């Protein structure tokens, strides 16, 4: 049995060109221009998530926790939402949301209290520490995003933003499980 150091390195991901060529070889009806756009978006999304994950990890939180903080901030002051609304906004099951809220409450990022006007309802609220972590993550993300887009002019950024928003709306309009996400864009 070979030693772990003797093991062959994992194969690198093929370039976009290699991937598209392989797809065309196996599926002749493929539009290479469309495939280049879609594949580039998928890879960009994956790599950006890794980069954001590294940033949030330096702050002692996960991307999943960042998403909860973001949803609370976007909701506006006093930065409160019910667990069901949070789950819906993040596309999670109620059980997954409860687990995430439990972890974040124990870390002091959010509080969970019964609604005084409706004792059945629970309210999740952003804490001062949670807001500070969100602000620091935003500072880090802003630097990363500016570096990412540094080669694009203001006009190119605007066109890219409009084109990507158009594509996003098309997907959300045609996918029944994407309901509600357009509110983030308006």
TrEMBL record:
It comes from the Bacteria. Residues 34-173 form the HTH marR-type domain. It holds the Pfam family MarR. Gene3D superfamilies: Winged helix-like DNA-binding domain superfamily/Winged helix DNA-binding domain. Coiled coil: none annotated. This is MarR family winged helix-turn-helix transcriptional regulator. It comes from Streptomyces celluloflavus.
């Amino acid at each position: 049995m070979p030693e772990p150091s003797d093991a062959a390195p994992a194969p690198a991901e093929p370039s976009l060109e290699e991937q598209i060529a392989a797809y065309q070889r196996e599926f002749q009806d493929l539009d290479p221009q469309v495939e280049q756009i879609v594949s580039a978006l998928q890879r960009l999304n994956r790599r950006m998530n890794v980069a954001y994950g590294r940033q949030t990890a330096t702050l002692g939180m996960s991307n999943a926790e960042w998403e909860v903080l973001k949803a609370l901030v976007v909701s506006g002051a006093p930065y409160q939402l019910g667990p069901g609304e949070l789950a819906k906004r993040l596309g999670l099951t109620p059980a997954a949301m409860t687990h995430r809220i439990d972890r974040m409450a124990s870390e002091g990022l959010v509080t969970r209290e019964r609604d005084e006007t409706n004792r059945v309802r629970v309210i999740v609220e952003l804490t001062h520490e949670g807001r500070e972590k969100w602000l620091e993550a935003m500072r880090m993300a802003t630097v990363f995003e500016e570096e990412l887009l540094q080669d694009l002019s203001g006009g190119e950024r605007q066109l890219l933003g409009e084109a990507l928003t158009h594509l996003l709306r098309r997907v959300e309009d045609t996918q029944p499980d994407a309901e509600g996400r357009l509110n983030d864009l308006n």
